[in-house]
Amino acid sequence: MMKPAHEREALRQQMMLRAIWRDARPGVLAGWTRDGERFTRGLQAYQANAGALAERALAAAYPTVQQLLGEESFAALARIFWQDQPPERGDVAAWGDGLPAFVEGDAQLASEPYLADLARLEWALHLAQSAADSEPGVQGLERLADTDPDRLRLLARPGTALVASAHPVLTIWQAHRSSDAERFVPVRAAFAEGRAEAALVWREGWRVRAGAVAALDLAFTRAVLAGTPLAAALAGAGAGFSFEPWLIGALQQGWLAGAEDLPT
What is the Cα–Cα distance from 53 to 20, expressed in whole angstroms? Predict the structure, then answer.
């Protein structure tokens, strides 16, 4: 029985991607393209440039990782990565989420243990850039005054993410965004004291932001982003946490979208 047209098209695209990214023999697509000879020539040309395409795609998402490794080493990493984890769809800009774990498991990069978490931060920033827009203002915050916290949860705007690390990844990222002659002094100081950092990523209009999350606020912020009921988030926040200054800070930064009743 012949597959429906949309299923055949999806399969054709999947096979084309497999041929492009896995260096499969062009003949595997015989009968799936209208002009086999022309497609074969195009495929061979595309395969020849696939490594460069992979490098450009990853460099767009991981510019700081590229700076730290150097262009040559980053290019080699990109080529190995796309051979190991090729794109599964045509939008190469959406590919690359597996790089942090890939870096973490690479024995050659074991001497740079912060690199994987830095990549996680950059991927969160990359995703935030294309996150959906949300309604302006803060919705339902008045519910905090008249509703039991075990019936509420706080809402973050799309693209908001938390990256916690045993390394000073936010300081590293900020240094590479600066042109100040002394920009790496804070990085050296952070490494010297063995500082762990947590970074919050959010979108402010069309701009993507990253800011530090204090250790006392970390557990509560993580719970909010996970959609935890407010009462449980407060109970798990730990000693020293204060809700009011946290709320003021979240509203000032603009990533808190509001509060809503939990589904019954």
Answer: 11
DSSP result, 24-44 = --GGGGTTTSSSHHHHHHHHH
**Same domain? 164 vs 80:** no
Domain count within the chain? 2
Angle at CA of residue 40, ends 88 and 10, nearest 5°? 35
| Inside any domain, residue 136 | no
Residues 159 and 63 in one domain: no
Single pTM value for the model: 0.83
Say whether both 167 and 243 belong to one domain: yes
For the purposes of burial, counting CB atoms within 10 Å of the CB of 32, is it exposed (0-12), middle (13-18) or buried (19 or more)?
Answer: middle
Q: What is the pLDDT along the chain (264 residues), one digit of tens a residue?
A: 444 666 656 655 555 555 555 544 545 444 545 555 666 666 666 666 777 888 899 999 999 999 999 999 999 999 899 888 888 776 777 899 999 999 999 999 999 999 999 999 999 999 999 999 888 789 999 999 999 999 999 999 999 999 999 999 999 999 999 999 999 999 999 999 999 999 999 998 889 999 999 999 999 999 999 999 999 999 999 999 999 999 999 999 999 999 999 987
Tokens describing residue 111: 């001497």
Residue-range definition of the domain harbouring residue 209: 143-261
